[in-house]
Design goal:
346 residues, alpha/beta, 11 helices
């Protein structure tokens, strides 16, 4: 039986220099290409490394293929979540259990090139950096809609959160052990790493790259989830929506004040019939503002409610990197149903 609450800090091995964390959800089609490109790159570094593949409740043969690949690739480590928890939760599980002095996060679709990882590691060492971001210098392979929505997202985040948020930097990055320990010290709650990591203020650098097309399969991040990520980012890192509600309330007050003056003037003139339209407009406007404000407050209260419950964002079912897993000889059952993952986000 695997101890779900086993403290991975007990397993830190200084000999491991680099961990590569890869969240996966239904990536059986992309796995051969991923291994074919990633392993030569990591073997060529000459460093002791591990690849932490986090299965986020896949429903295809992803887990079975990973188990087969591990036979010939001892550096491959499998961490399987008990249920689909989302891309950021799977990334959290991998980063928290990574044992290297540095950890690089990578998506399985190969839109972010693994060949840049050695360059990231060299830059971190040469300049004493704790964070190296992979910045997308070219997104021509994305659709026009994806490019415009991504541009709007980063523009909005930099305005609300601050200019320390790198533009066009997703979840492809290299983190030092100092940053990993800081992340583990945070409360267990959903994280948006593209905003959280810059917030720490650790010394950082950038490596630019060309964003490729998805190597296989289909995106796990439709428009609905892109919108949800944007909402999570705004609510988690800014009180601007609350201030917007205040400004809307102030605007509604002045509109009502103007309507009141107009109504009194019409009443004094003895012609009250024309006031019907303005009354309806005022009522509808105030009602809309109230609903917007209640919705904003509800988003914040909902997150407070989730934090108070203190439920973990994920549960690890199996981890081949633990001593218990090695001794027990974990059997990998068939895939289970999932709900999607936050891959291909912006």
């Amino acid at each position: 039986m695997i101890d779900l609450f086993h403290d991975p800090t007990d397993l830190i091995e200084p000999a491991i220099e680099l961990s590569v964390v890869i969240p996966m959800f239904n990536e059986e089609e992309a796995l051969p290409a991923l291994v074919g490109r990633l392993r030569p790159v990591l073997d060529g570094t000459g460093e002791q490394y591990e690849v932490v593949a986090v299965d986020d409740g896949s429903t295809d043969r992803t887990v079975e293929l990973l188990a087969e690949l591990r036979v010939a690739w001892p550096q491959l480590r499998l961490v399987r979540l008990r249920r689909n928890s989302g891309h950021q939760a799977a990334l959290t599980a991998g980063l928290h259990r990574a044992r290297g002095r540095y950890a690089a996060s990578l998506d399985a679709d190969l839109q972010d090139p693994p060949e840049k990882i050695p360059e990231m590691l060299a830059l971190a060492r040469a300049q004493g950096l704790d964070i190296v971001y992979g910045v997308r210098a070219n997104r021509s392979t994305d659709t026009g809609f994806k490019r415009h929505t991504a541009g709007a997202y980063y523009w909005l985040m930099r305005r609300l959160v601050g200019n320390h948020v790198p533009a066009q930097a997703g979840d492809f990055r290299l983190l030092s052990r100092n940053v990993l320990d800081a992340l583990k010290a945070l409360p267990d709650q959903p994280q948006v790493y593209r905003l959280l990591v810059p917030w720490f203020g650790f010394p950082s650098g950038e490596v630019t790259y060309h964003r490729d097309e998805r190597v296989a399969g289909h995106t796990k991040y439709p428009l609905r989830k892109m919108i949800l990520l944007a909402v999570d980012s705004i609510i988690s890192f800014s009180v601007a929506p609350l201030r917007l509600a205040t400004w809307l309330g102030t605007l509604a007050f002045f509109v009502c004040l103007g309507t009141l003056v107009y109504t009194l003037a019409v009443y004094t003139a003895g012609d009250t019939a024309p006031g019907w339209a303005s009354l309806i407009i005022a009522v509808l406007f105030i009602g809309a503002v109230q609903l917007i404000c209640l919705g904003v407050l509800g988003e914040y209260i909902g997150r407070i409610y989730s934090a108070v419950k203190q439920r973990p964002t994920y549960y690890v079912g199996d981890d081949t990197g633990t001593a218990d897993a090695s001794a027990a000889g974990i059997a990998w059952p068939g895939p289970r149903r999932g709900q999607g993952s936050r891959q291909d986000a912006f």
